[in-house]
Amino acid sequence: MKKSLTALTAALFLSGAVFAQKVEFEEYTLDNGLHVVLHQDKSAPVVVTSVMYHVGAKDENPERTGFAHFFEHLLFEGTENIERGEWFKLVTANGGHNNANTSDDRTYYYEVFPSNNLELAIWMESDRLLQPVINQIGVDTQNEVVKEEKRLRVDNQPYGNLITEVKRNMFKKHPYRWAPIGSMEHLDAATLEEFQAFNKKFYIPNNAVLVIAGDIDFKQTKELVQQYFGPIKKGTPVERIKITEDPITTPIIAEYQDPNIQLPMYITAYRTPSNKTRDARVLDMVSSILTGGKSSRLYKKLVDQDKMAMQVSAFNFSQEDYGMYLILDIPMPGFTREQLQKVIDAEIVDLQTNLISERDYQKLQNEFENNYVNSNSNLESLAENLATNYLLMGDINLINEEINIYRSITREEIREVAKKYLQPNARLLLDYVPVKEEAAN
């Protein structure tokens, strides 16, 4: 009886938390095409102001890769009203912090300020959009910054080229085949005019969403948004070309030698559908079943029981056009790719053949309920989720409804989706290994 009461109490607490997590927001579109999303949270005198632009690495010229990421840096150089080098000083002097990040699909900028500096944040982002200063000094400066970032995070980082190498092998036509950080040779060769043209094409109000979340008054915030963003002219709509990859019908076998590692990593990767699809969410659950923690199937088998691997993990890398499902393992000394692959494939076949138990299914549902609660637990995450759902997912209401999709996924769907996408003839087998002695010499 005590156990039942404990379980009931936990269930009520969890359902209450999920209910309390419902996100209220208002959205509208300015005449210039800028979509605006407002969320009020009076729990603390803080406000997040963010702009997400629908431009990422996939929008670049194949001969000029790295532009979107370069702009993540370049647009902090200054504006007609904010002198070069003053952006970060202005933010910190007013009690705030800010950052930006770039993916294959979008670029995202945000500031977090005390709520009495809301107008400052709105003005700064509008000025960045309206009149950024893009000159040779800024380009040269950020060129060196990006090169140093590449050296630090990619070239000299253990396993730093892992995702890049997976993408390069998995995509032959689609621009996902290169990394957001791009080619330093391409950036060196680019002219100032090319950078200015890229800004004019993509950094326009009708290619962006503005999200303001926190301790705000709706009426005042709308007036400020109209005052600062309203006068910015609409840009030429961005034309997007859909590029379709041919199906993978035979296994892709590849190797990459990394001078920064001593232990090999074996990667098994499958191409998966867009993050807009239901199947992408089912694959999230498949990832959890196989390697979601120490109780997952592959961890228990490869790490705990057979002690064949030091580490194993899997994740569904979902993006706007395609995704990738990756299984990564670092073998214990003496074990080969073939030995580990045999165990991995056996677990996949079992998942494709048999339904997971009711107990495991309930555990999975609890895990995703908890993930849902945590995903919007702070204003910064919530603002980014609102922007992503609107701009990339095409449905801003996923902020509240996505958990219902996960709840509705059945055991039968998990089996069928695993069978559909995790096929041995439609995958990449990448050996990510240390530099071989003969190659080093």
UniProtKB/TrEMBL annotation:
InterPro entries: Metalloenz_LuxS/M16, Pept_M16_N, Peptidase_M16, Peptidase_M16_C. Coiled coil: none annotated. One of its GO terms (biological process) is proteolysis. Residues 36-175 form the Peptidase M16 N-terminal domain. Residues 1-20 form the signal peptide. Residues 190-366 form the Peptidase M16 C-terminal domain. Keywords: Hydrolase, Metalloprotease, Protease, Signal, Zinc. GO terms for molecular function: metal ion binding; metallopeptidase activity. It holds the Pfam family Peptidase_M16_C. Gene3D superfamilies: Metalloenzyme, LuxS/M16 peptidase-like. Belongs to the peptidase M16 family. This is Insulinase family protein. It comes from Paenimyroides tangerinum.
